[in-house]
Design a protein that fits this description.
4 copies of one chain form a homotetramer.
Chain A: H1 6-13, H2 17-21, E1 24-30, E2 33-39, H3 53-68, E3 73-84, E4 93-104, E5 107-116, E6 121-135
Antiparallel strand pairs in A: 1-2, 2-4, 3-6, 4-5, 5-6
């Protein structure tokens, strides 16, 4: 059996209902690397009127999922940490950039950066995915 | 000036647009402790048809925000980590329970558990909030 | 080939030069669970005269290694986080208790607690080990 | 009262008994940045003959402490996470490089890299320190 290529994998990944509900758009999906953007609205805010930490994390995590599954086999996040470095400020969108940085057996380590419109760092995340050998279609 | 009490703080916290958008309902908000529930639908799923890690995190994080701000003064999350222990399985909702476990100066440490309908552990999170002295309204 | 039992595994684990150098004594090693104690001296202190964070972590990590390798096959830590909840205070030793809390494929999740002599919580850690199928002797 | 300068702070930091016991040498301490080196021996190994995760963490953490206290006021680590990316391999020493990346109130975020002799990445760490206003001496 042949693994699906990154383009076919990307077609699957782009049909993510949770990401769509949050207005997350996948800009780039290549092997071990993905970039996504979330256009911000009232529905991303917390009760203080600031962008919710869960929204910032969800953007990073959806992009992590794209990078981790880009190889065409199913992978699952087992751990993610997020450090909130600065408030997003006055920005129309947030953008996440995620790269695979290492492999340890079936484990893959990923670094994630979330930046605002001017390009300032808003949050950094680090995560581990567990790579199965099952194809995405499953 | 008087700090607002936990009931007044809870009224603010319950008006969270991001939480509302994800179907998160705050069940209990008391000093340093909160419980929330998220009823699951298609919009919480990822492209594999499983509950998205970002949705699980967002439930925990919204509950963390409720527990951390229950004292009536503004606090901000600086760090959260999540460990995904088991898939949610066949469940109508997920429930998060968050407790403050320690204070270190203006820092507060919180432990979070996310469980499915039968009560099985789905994820654990640990986070730090930075407690300012500004009132929630301010 | 037969896997070694927990008693044989424990004999290996107890010959740890790094743990011995820090005065760490393995009190209990059973399947997926270990308890260790570190008697404190000047060599565990930082330049402020407090117990060094690295010493507290090392006690937890050595105990994590004991719990994760107790099955007789080699495992490697891929991620550990530590939250320092309170200074150890006036105590002769620190004690760590580590339990496996979940398995996800070859990944194992472990919770760790470090307490002082009176039993107060000093730090909590969470980690993931990657379980290989190679025997410890390997 | 005047804060001590970075040179005076560095003199304090270099007298760290735990770091000395592990053979850690502070190479550079400047404002918000430090580099340290640990020459490896039998006492850094675990029962498998590999460099102990606690030794790798301790090098990073001691360097973190140097960077976080370089301003002359006491700071305490509240959280550190470590991701083990690759075994150190055949190397005489490990070197850690730690930089402050952000401030949030009294919280400071630090990124840490540990590399082997050829310069390959062995581990990355991320931590938060709580900065008090008390001078190092006090």
């Amino acid at each position: 059996m042949q693994h699906m290529g990154v383009d076919e994998a990307a077609r699957f990944i782009r049909k993510d209902p949770f990401a769509a509900n949050l207005g997350i758009e996948f800009i780039l999906i290549e092997k071990g690397h993905a970039i996504s953007r979330m256009t911000l609205g009232e529905e991303h805010k917390n009760f203080m009127g600031m962008i919710h930490g869960g929204a910032i994390f969800s953007l990073a995590d959806a992009t992590f999922g794209a990078a981790a599954n880009s190889g065409g086999t199913r992978s699952m996040a087992i751990h993610v940490s997020i450090d909130y470095l600065a408030p997003p400020g006055d920005t129309n969108y947030l953008q996440a950039d995620v790269r695979e940085t290492a492999r340890a057996g079936r484990g893959g380590h990923y670094q994630m950066e979330v930046r605002n419109d001017p390009g300032d760092l808003v949050a950094v995340c680090h995560g581990w995915a567990y790579h199965t050998s099952r194809p995405l279609k499953g």
